[in-house]
Write a structure and sequence with these properties.
single chain, 258 residues, 9 helices, 14 strands, 27% strand, binds zinc ion
């Protein structure tokens, strides 16, 4: 299976999987970015997976469905373009021989879902929309810190070699923040240098992996003492032994970090 991040807007990726004949796309905010590749490579679109209702993720769904007849799958509890098959925790989608398990990951939006395929060419792969980014996590537009903490814990529990396909190229700005939170993390410094090289060469920093994120992402490292202490330095009312309290402080800090 080929895996392609199709760039859209200023920093979105529309992830495409294809086998040379058929394709699946995830979060097509822009139909033309997908139509161009379908036409250019002579692919038919079998299915569209959608993680949440924001326009930069669903904007192209209606035109792509109308133009290709692709089946559309998305969250059970969000406003979505119809027709769509609505999914929640525990549901499984099977397309092109791949099985995608649905994980509820509320926080960025209240009905956000992620798609986890335990075996694509022998390795697991995750499409997590705007929940987990490399080095960061989504803003809490609709959900609570407690919900985001539980959602990130669920993703952190996936196998370390899971390829993590996030919907935005936010890595460098996330890592700048992560370095402020955890200046003593050597793996983070090394990863930041690697990502700077990739971006200088106009390459995506994604997919990441769960193992990498566990090593570098402060939002998955809320139980590490350096992370917890930094959160408390930012907001003195933080309880450093409570992962949710630490996450809430980090999210607030990151919202205004430049
Ligand atoms: Zn979003
Ligand atoms: Fe987005």
């Amino acid at each position: 299976m080929n895996l392609l991040p199709l760039p859209a807007f200023s920093d979105n990726y529309i992830w495409m999987m294809h086998d040379g004949k058929n394709a699946i796309v995830v979060d097509p905010g822009d139909a033309d970015a997908v139509f161009d590749v379908l036409r250019g490579s002579g692919l038919s679109l079998a299915a569209i997976l959608v993680t949440h209702h924001h326009g930069d993720h669903v904007g192209g769904v209606e035109d792509l469905h109308a133009g290709t007849g692709a089946r559309v799958y998305g969250p059970a509890n969000e406003i979505m373009p119809e027709p769509i098959t609505r999914l929640a925790q525990g549901d499984v989608v099977e397309e092109m021989g791949l099985k995608f398990q649905v994980i509820d990951v509320p926080g960025h939006t209240s009905g956000h879902i992620a798609f986890f395929c335990p075996d694509m060419d022998g390795t697991p792969i995750l499409f997590c929309g705007d929940t987990l980014f490399s080095g960061g996590c989504g803003r809490l537009f609709e959900g609570t810190p407690e919900q985001m903490r539980a959602s990130l814990d669920a993703l952190a529990a996936l196998p370390g070699n899971t390829r993590v396909c996030c919907a935005h190229e936010y890595t460098l700005s996330n890592l700048k923040f992560a370095r402020a939170v955890e200046p003593g993390n050597a793996a983070l410094l090394k990863y930041q240098q690697d990502c700077i090289k990739l971006r200088n060469a106009d390459q995506p920093t994604l997919p990441s992996s769960i193992a990498t994120e566990l090593a570098v992402n402060p939002f998955l490292r809320t139980r590490e003492s350096e992370v917890a202490q930094s959160a408390k330095t930012f907001n003195a009312s933080t309880n450093p032994s409570d992962a949710t309290s630490v996450l809430a402080a980090l999210r607030e800090w990151k919202n205004n970090f430049r």
